[in-house]
Amino acid sequence: GDVIEQVWAPNSKLLGYSADAQSDEVIEIFTTNPVTGSTLKVSSPGLTAGSDAVLFVGGFNKKNTHLIYRADQEVDDRFELFATLVSGAADVKISGPASGGFGVASAELR
Predict the structure, then answer these.
(1) What is the pLDDT of residues 9-52, one digit of tens each?
(2) Using alpha carbons only, how large is the chain's radius of gyration in Å?
(3) N or C terminus of the chain with fewer C-beta within 10 Å?
(4) 97-100: long-range contacts (C-beta < 8 A, 24 or more apart)?
(5) Exposed (0-12), middle (13-18) or buried (19+): which is 95, by Cβ within 10 Å?
(6) Are 107 and 81 a contacting pair, CB within 8 Å?
(7) 74-94 pLDDT tens trace
(8) What is the spatial distance between Cα 7 and Cα 20, in angstroms, rounded to a whole number?
(9) CA dihedral defined by 77, 58, 11, 94, rounded to 10 degrees?
């Protein structure tokens, strides 16, 4: 699969990346530990063909516990913001309800 983009956690212990590693044309979010080589899919299992999940630059929170990404995982071509634990244990929509159009176009982490 193709790696689309990557971002280091602030503590440099994990690398988050988006790729179509498991299914062609389904872009998902993964973390990898560069020391052990272990990789974990952390984005929602609900992504389907044509769906895209894209990490934000600086996509890790300051505590290195969550990744923030933009995806059309609920409605095709309607992009919303999601947060997921780096353990892959939870996936939560954090943008408000999209009222049509393309949804969230950009965001800034602070």
Answers:
(1) 999 999 999 888 877 777 888 999 999 999 998 887 666 656 67
(2) 13
(3) C
(4) none
(5) middle
(6) yes
(7) 777 888 888 888 888 778 888
(8) 16
(9) -50
